Amino acid sequence: MDSKSPPRIFSRDRRKAGYRRAMVRQSQRDAARYVLDDMVEDVLDRLEFMRFEPARVLVIGDWTHTLALSLRGRGSLVEEENVRTVDEEQPLAGGPYDLIVSLSSLDRVNDLPGALLHLRAALAEGGMLIASVIGAGSLAELRRAMIAAEPDRPAARMHPLIDNAAASALMQRALFKRQVVDSRSLEVAYRSLDRLVSDLRDQGLSSSLANTPPPLGKAALGRAREAFLMARNDQGRVVENFEILTLTGWKD
């Protein structure tokens, strides 16, 4: 059995710092929150479609608290956690839960197989996990802009992302039953690279890489902005895509 530790790609300290900054930014009236809003709405739609009414729920990553509020209105006992209060790579305290929902959290852990096992262990028999993550194929225009900024030796500035096939394999590896992974696209239009970056910071989606690259210099930033705007449509906007994967599995 391979006992090697998983590679350290992400920094938990940087994730927590980004979360704290996002909470400050969310106090501003025009702060972006569309990624999490989309995930919350999707979870509620799924639960309504399945007519699943969990008695005890753990929600991880919903800093808007709207999912917990909705579930409490349906009669569920809900506990909430965030990146500052829970480490998905460690066994979860509490439980067992009839439902665990993780929103935009599992895409930035170093040991994703281990995190899924811990989540499954915290479920009651017959309990369900719904985990939404930002998947491969997202932010293609931003990635192109970052490469254009440093054409000779581009630094790693964006997270590696999981795709549908890999997510399905990991759910099977974690022993989930009736597991399903599906995807949908959330398209958002921007007038500038700076607005996109600001929106990502608003939502706690900025870089959490363990190895922090140096800031872009003035010339490199100019190249990035120019490359980003090359994808403008007829309305002068760049349409960026967030590919959202939803991992669903049961503990039978």
Summarize the topology.
Layout: H1 12-25, H2 34-50, E1 56-60, H3 66-73, E2 77-81, E3 97-103, H4 112-121, E4 123-134, H5 140-149, H6 164-173, E5 177-190, H7 193-202, H8 218-229, E6 238-251
Parallel strand pairs: 1-2, 1-3, 3-4
Antiparallel strand pairs: 4-6, 5-6
Helix pairs in contact: 2-3, 5-8
Descriptive account of the structure:
The protein is globular and about 55 Å long. The protein contains 8 helices and 6 strands. It has a domain at 12-139 and 157-186 and 241-251: Rossmann fold. With 252 residues, it is α/β, with parallel strands linked by helices. Helix 2 (34-50) runs parallel beside helix 3 (66-73) and helix 5 (140-149) runs antiparallel to helix 8. Helices cover 36% and strands 23% of the residues.
